[in-house]
Specification:
The complex is a heterodimer of chains A (89) and B (175). Chain A has 89 residues and is mainly alpha-helical. Chain A is built from 3 helices and no strands. Chain A has one domain. Chain A is 87% helix and 0% strand. Chain B has 175 residues and is mostly helical. The chains are: A mainly alpha (89), B mainly alpha (175).
C-alpha cells in the first residue's frame, strides 16, 4: 500500500506541476489554417473527379435535350390530331 | 458546454468559423492532456491539431450525430490520437537531444521537467494503461468518464489501472 501511496502522491505532485501547461501562442490560428486547408482540399478533391465526368455529363445533357424535343413534338402531334378529331366531330 | 454543442451544430450546418470557437474553448485542456500523455508540448500540439482535423471532418460529414457530449468526444479523439502517437513512437528509434531547443519557449522549465518526469515515470507502461492512469490520476476523471473516453467498460478501466499500478510498483521496488 505504501508503494501505491507513493505512486498516487507522485502523480498528484506531477498533476499540480503541469496544471498550467498549454499550447503556444497562435495555436488556434494554426489549427484554423489547417482546417481551411482541409476545406480547400475537399473542394479540389471534388473538382478533379467532376472534371473527369464532364464529357459524360455533356453527352447525357444532349441526349436529354433530344428526348425532350422528341417528346414535345409527339405531344404536339397528338394534340394536333385530337384538334382535328374534335373539328371533324 | 452548451455553447460547444451549439457551435458544433453550427459547424454541422456549414459554418466553418464556428469551429474556431470550439478550438478556443477546448485547446488549452486538450493540449495539456496530450502533453501529460506524451511528455512534451510540441508532440501534444501536433496530436491535438490532427484530432481537431478529424473532429472537423466528422462534424461536416455527419459522422458525429450530436448525441455524445462534444467535450467528451474531443477528449476521446485526442486520447486515441495520443495512444497512436505513443505506439508509432515506440516503433521508431528515439531522437537524440533535439527536443530542448524547440521547446524552450513553450513552458517554464519546471513544467517541462514535470512533463519529462511524468513521461519517464510511465515510460514502461503500454499506451492504453498509460492513458487510463493519466485520465484517472492526473486529469482527475472518474472511472465511468474514463470508460466513456476510452470506449470500454468500467471493469476494463479498473483492470488497466490495477495493471498500471502493479507495473509502477514493480519498477519502484526494483530501483
Amino acid at each position: 500500500m505504501s508503494h501505491d501511496e507513493d505512486i498516487d502522491a507522485r502523480l498528484e505532485r506531477l498533476a499540480a506541476a503541469t496544471s498550467s501547461v498549454g499550447p503556444r501562442g497562435g495555436f488556434s490560428g494554426r489549427v484554423m489554417a489547417r482546417i481551411n486547408e482541409e476545406q480547400l482540399g475537399t473542394l479540389l478533391a471534388l473538382r478533379v473527379p467532376a472534371r473527369r465526368f464532364l464529357p459524360f455529363g455533356m453527352l447525357a445533357a444532349a441526349l436529354a435535350m433530344v428526348w425532350a424535343v422528341s417528346v414535345t413534338s409527339q405531344v404536339n402531334e397528338a394534340m394536333a390530331s385530337s384538334d382535328d378529331t374534335e373539328l371533324a366531330w | 458546454m452548451e455553447n460547444l454543442d451549439e457551435a458544433a451544430q453550427r459547424v454541422r450546418s456549414g459554418d466553418a468559423a464556428a469551429f474556431g470557437q470550439i478550438v478556443d474553448a477546448t485547446s488549452g485542456r486538450l493540449v495539456r492532456l496530450a502533453a501529460r500523455m506524451l511528455g512534451n508540448v510540441v508532440d501534444a500540439e501536433d496530436v491535438v491539431q490532427e484530432a481537431y482535423v478529424k473532429a472537423y471532418r466528422a462534424l461536416t460529414s455527419g459522422e458525429f450525430d450530436g448525441r455524445a457530449n462534444v467535450s467528451t468526444w474531443l477528449y476521446r479523439i485526442v486520447t486515441n490520437q495520443a495512444i497512436d502517437a505513443m505506439r508509432s513512437r515506440a516503433r521508431r528509434p528515439k531522437p537524440t537531444d533535439t527536443a530542448d531547443e524547440s521547446i524552450s519557449d513553450l513552458a517554464s522549465a519546471e513544467q517541462q521537467m514535470a512533463l519529462a518526469e511524468l513521461a519517464d515515470f510511465m515510460s514502461e507502461l503500454p499506451p492504453d494503461q498509460r492513458a487510463a492512469l493519466v485520465l484517472k490520476s492526473v486529469e482527475g476523471l472518474t472511472s465511468p468518464e474514463i470508460a466513456e473516453v476510452l470506449q470500454c467498460s468500467e471493469g476494463a478501466v479498473e483492470q488497466r489501472l490495477v495493471r498500471a499500478r502493479a507495473a509502477l510498483r514493480k519498477r519502484s521496488e526494483a530501483q
